[in-house]
Automatic annotation (TrEMBL):
Top-level enzyme category: transferase
EC annotation from Swiss-Prot or TrEMBL: 2.7.1.49, 2.7.4.7
Domain Carbohydrate kinase PfkB stretches: 35-273
Gene Ontology molecular functions: hydroxymethylpyrimidine kinase activity; phosphomethylpyrimidine kinase activity
PANTHER family: RIBOKINASE, SUGAR KINASE
Record keywords: Kinase, Transferase
Protein's name in the database: Bifunctional hydroxymethylpyrimidine kinase/phosphomethylpyrimidine kinase
Length: 305
């Protein structure tokens, strides 16, 4: 099954302790789509400006991402500038220029209106809602957001959240959204908003999934070198939804496997700046790292335990 992705396509300027890059390819929907494209067909809806380099469009095309819904309009592409300190888990936003997103009205092409798998990547929650209202009967809806929208558009965001199957946010966002410091309490408060499953991303500490009846914990892959965490969350979400859409298996087991594929994809993405590592990644490398994850987390029962 194909996936419909709506979110930002951006030019990012990023500083980490290991270097910096100016106006490189980024954006929530870009990371998401590229990651998901290793598992299934992806249809992308977003907007870019006249300054968006043709080489980036060619790259997305090379991943077989359908760009019918990517509009190019007069103006500048969304631009995000961020910095990471030695604690690579949390980005500090230095500048956000919405640019062409300021007047963007997402129109879902007729051919995408029957999408079964929908990801509302990080974007203005009012736009997320407009998209949700245009997709007829999605089987699975996943949603991401960030502190910028939690503080500026909380009511719109809560309306969106009440309609999603998987809310995928980082631990700082979970605390901010719920007003609870303890993550278990935060999860309970967020599930009470109507979301069916909450996936909390914890950077180098992995992810936790809560759904009201069970909790699943996955570590992050221990890496010796992390260059740029930008997009790790979106790459996780892309692998997660891509695998679910590929198998259609929404059982607890299927969702757990999808979480590991998401973690595998995020672990590759942080190995280089921008989408550079995803550009060279191959499916056999993904499978090999999935196997390493399995070995790394396997332990035997003891007697009755
Ligand atoms: P992540 O590191 O997974 O949280 O996502 C990083 C990506 O989010 C970057 O490539 C940015 O271009 C994009 N981004 C940053 N701020 C926003 C925002 N306010 N709305 C939409 N996308 C954003």
């Amino acid at each position: 099954m194909s996936i419909l992705v709506v979110g930002s396509v951006a030019l990012d300027s990023v500083q980490t302790p290991f270097g910096e890059r100016d106006r490189v390819l980024g954006g929530s929907a870009t990371y998401f789509s590229t990651s998901a494209s290793f598992f299934t067909d992806v249809n992308l809806v977003a907007v870019v400006g006249e300054d968006f380099p043709e080489e980036h469009t060619r790259f997305l095309n090379s991943r077989n991402i359908d760009l019918t819904g990517l509009s190019r309009v007069p103006g500048q592409t969304f631009h995000w500038k961020g910095r990471y300190g030695y604690d690579l888990n949390e980005a500090q936003t230095l500048e956000t220029h919405l640019n062409v997103f300021e007047s963007f009205k997402p129109v879902i092409p007729e051919a995408y209106a029957d999408a079964q798998y929908l990801i509302l990547a990080n974007i203005d929650p009012e736009l997320q809602m407009e998209v949700l209202n245009q997709v007829k009967q999605p089987r699975v809806v996943a949603c991401d957001t960030m502190n910028f929208w939690i503080s500026s558009k909380i009511e719109a965001l809560k309306k969106v959240i009440s309609r999603v199957d998987f809310l995928i946010i980082n631990e700082g966002e979970a605390r901010q959204l719920s007003g609870e410091v303890n993550l278990v309490k935060a999860a309970r408060a967020i599930i009470a908003l109507g979301v069916k499953n909450l996936i909390v991303k914890r950077g180098e500490y992995g992810v936790l999934m809560f759904n009201g009846h069970s909790v699943f914990a996955a570590p992050a892959y221990p890496l010796e070198e992390v260059f740029d965490p930008t997009g790790a969350g979106d790459t996780f979400a892309g692998g997660f939804m891509g695998y679910l859409a590929n198998t259609g298996n929404l059982s607890d087991e299927g969702v757990r496997q999808a979480i590991i594929f998401g973690s595998v994809m995020a672990s590759f993405n942080v190995e280089a700046f921008s989408l550079d590592r995803l550009k060279t990644l191959t499916y056999p490398e993904i499978e090999a790292r999935y196997r390493s994850f399995k070995n790394m987390t396997h332990f035997q029962g003891v007697g009755e335990l």
